[in-house]
Structure formats: C-alpha cells, structure tokens
Amino acid sequence: MMHRVAVTGIGIVSCLGLDLDTVQESLKQGKSGIQVVKEREELGFFSPLSGVITDFDYAGCGLTRRQKKTMPNFTIQAYSAVTQALQTAGLTAEDIQNSRTGLIFGNDSTARAQVEQAAITEQDASTSGISSGYCFKAMTSTITLNLNVLLGVRGASWSISSACSSGGHAIGQAADLIALGRQDRVICGGAQEINWQSLCSFDALEAFSRRIDAPEKASRPFDAGRDGLVPSGGAAAVILERYDLAVERGATILGELEAYGFSSDGSDLCRPNGEGLQSAMEDALERAQLQPSDIDLVSAHATSTPVGDKAEAFAISNLFGDQGVNVTALKSMTGHELWMSGASQVVYTILQAQGGFTARTINFETSDEMSEKLRLVVESNTTAPGRVMLNSAGFGGTNACLILNTRGE
Amino acid sequence: MTLATMTKEEIIAITNKAISDEFEFELEDMVPTAHLYEDLGLDSLDAVDLVLVLEKAFGVKLRNQPEVKEVRTLEDIYQLIMQLQQTAE
After folding, report:
1. A128·B23 Cβ contact <8 A
2. Residue A192 burial (CB < 10 Å; 0-12/13-18/19+)?
3. Which of A313, A333, B22, B75 has CA atoms 20 to 30 A from the CA of A400?
4. What domains appear along chain B, each with residue ranges and CATH number?
5. Which residues of A are catalytically annotated?
6. How far apart (Å, rounded) are the C-alpha atoms in residues A184 and A3?
7. pTM for the complete prediction?
8. Inter-chain residue contact A128 with B63, CB threshold 8 Å
9. pLDDT tens digit string along B27-82?
10. Which ipTM score applies to this complex?
C-alpha cells in the first residue's frame, strides 16, 4: 500500500528574506534578491552578480560555538530553516527522536572549507594546524551529518548530490520513503553555499549574467534578452509526513506531495535536451494518475540561461500544448539557488498558497520563439497556485519533477 | 611576552583564557584539578583543538610532544607548558 504524503512544515533562509513572512512578502511584491558582490569584481570574476543573504544572525541562531565548529555557513542556515519548519509543523524534539523520522538534504559542494583546509596544510607544510571541525565541514554530507546529531533523528540520514536538482531529488526521495511506509516523517530540503570559492569555476564557464548595471533585472527567465544565470543560495527545509498520521496528530496540512518523477538526459554535461525533463514531468503525472489538464501551474526550473530555458519551454509546451498551462519562474527574483533550488521552490509554493497569490515572473519583457509558447504569469494577482508541478534539472542531465497540491482538498 | 619570560601565574591565566574562549567555559570553572574529559566534558575532537589553541597561545609545538597524550587535568597542562618553558630557556 502506498501512503499519501503531507507537507506540514516549511522553513527558509534566502536572498528574499530570513523568515517565512519576509520571503512571502518579497514573492508577492516581485522583489529581486540580486546584488553586485564587490569581492568578486576584485577577484576578476566575469560576473559579480549574486543572490545575497544579509544580516543572518549566526551568533543568535541557537547553536553554541562548539556546535558551529563543524558547520559551514550554509549548514547553519539549514539548521535555521529546519528550526522554522519544525515550529511550523508543531513538532517537538521528542516527536522526531525516533527511527521513524528521517533527514535527507540536497547538497553538492562545500568548497570554502576544502579550500581553507588545503591552504592551511600548504602554508604549514603540515596538517597539524587544521582544527577538528574541518573534517566535518568539508564533506558534501555536512548538512545531514551535523543536523542528525543536533536533532537526534534516528531514521534515514543522508545527502543527495545531483547538481541543481539535488534539492528536488531530496524531497522526492523523502516522499517516496514515506509513501513506501519506510518512514513516518522526513525532514528534507536543500542548501547552497554562497561564496566565491564555490562559484569561481562556474564563473569561468561564462554562464553568469553580465547585466551588472541593473542587478535586479539580471535574472530574466524565458525573456529573449536573458544572458545567463545569477548564482544564489541559502537553505530551505520541508517537513513531510505520512498524511494519515499528520491528520491524526492534528497537524495543519500545508499541501500534499502527490508525486515525484525523475529521469536523466543521458546526452550532455551542461546542455539539457528538454526531452529528459519532459520524461520526468510525464513520470510524475503518471505516478499521480493525473492528466496535464489537472495541473494549474508549472513552477519552472528556468535559470535564465539561453539553452536551459529553451529546452524547458520545449518540454512544457510539448506536454501541455502551446499556452496550455500557467508557468512561473521564481528564479527571476531569487537567482539560481543551485543545489537548494528544487527544495526552495516547494517552500515558495506553499507561501504563495498561504498568501493566495501566484508569484509572478519578473523581468519578462520579450518572448522568443520558444517562450512564446508559454503562458507566463507576469502580473500581480490573487490566484492561488493550486496543484503545481515543480521542475528541477542539473548538470549531467539529471531531472526531478514534484507535484504539489496546495488546493486543500 | 614570550613563554621564556612568563611567570607561572601568567601561564595559568593564558591557558585558562585560551581554553575557556575556545570551548565557551566560564573562567571560574578553570580550576587546576578540573579533569578535561570528565569535568569539562571535552572529547577526542576537542583534544585536537585544545592542542591548537595552546600552540597559538604560547607559540610552541605540542602535537609531537609525547607528554601531550598524558594530559588529563588543567594542572597537567600548566606543568607541560612550564616544562616546555625550561626547554625554551
């Protein structure tokens, strides 16, 4: 028997805000979180544009200095997001400290810690100057290994690395574990470091927008004038629970995760073919036993790259027909939150549902031959997102598609 | 101030401050008989950082000193540093 999966908690630390209310307001207002980072200009980056998280309170986040010693900044942000999510879900420490509760996060790098530990070793010609925290900060699973100890969960505990679909696959796999009856609840999400060390090689590919004179207009998914993505990050957390158990304990159901589809392109490292993403979308529909017409909104992966957006517009229009479904591209405001993005859009979608609006795609001015096939949400509105298909795709051609029903049926 | 010219009181004060700063202990808990593992709750990872902060505080190399492995109390640390002081002289 497959179990239904409820979303009962959400948490977020992003360039749109450090708490749910602020982020919801930013989404509603169509506010951009993109700025120019001077340090990257000085380091000779082709593009210094970035999502920026300001005033995050590392000292006041509820962790001791000893606890933070093994945690890079994005892991501390993940802890903050999880704390918000548990609070939203009304779950106490006692509720989650058991083998029926798991922890799965998407993450695919922890570059700064690795750079720093290597520099200490080279400088001293010895490893004796490396403090104990680095070993745990420098592992890709740093989020789940740290949070597992802090939270005391005793079920699943691992990280998923699949480039920019890491967060999407993490939430999808968490949902599957619940659907299969292997876990009753999973704390899941994604996080992404924002620092030059993690982004320099990506910048070298010249994949980032150069629209430096107007940072807030730089990320423009599906617009004919798009010229690359804007890197961003932070942390997003989602609490998934077995639907019947969530109802039984009186939890507020924020949405139902109806399906997780996946696929891979099997063709190119960084040029998605669109067919793979379409397969993931079809897989999700089939698993949920839904038709394209049952979907109210597609929350597109759409990172503002010329090639990627074209492939996704191809996939969406193939599946839904020309102008066949509402589409929005949240990265127009957030930039591309990379490993975190597949998870953050779940949080952003729930916030839209709670606020009774669909976040619009900002910076969309002119369509091209593919995006003209899309019915993009570009105006402020009071249309709740309803049943949403959420796409994410990563380098190497790995695709995830979630179907999230926020209708409250 | 170098290790060679420090008094015992100065060594104790610097040791206590370095350790309490690193591990967020209260200075009043820094008594000579305090056992690093049983009283102060340090673990094997903390031991790595303990050596690092002492090396930094006194400008000495401790990692390869065999006596480091025998350290159990704060007093053991003071004695070890004083022993190194004599070598430095």
Report:
1. no
2. buried
3. A333
4. 3-88 (1.10.1200.10)
5. 164, 301, 336
6. 10
7. 0.96
8. yes
9. 999 999 999 999 999 999 999 999 999 999 999 999 888 899 999 999 999 999 99
10. 0.89
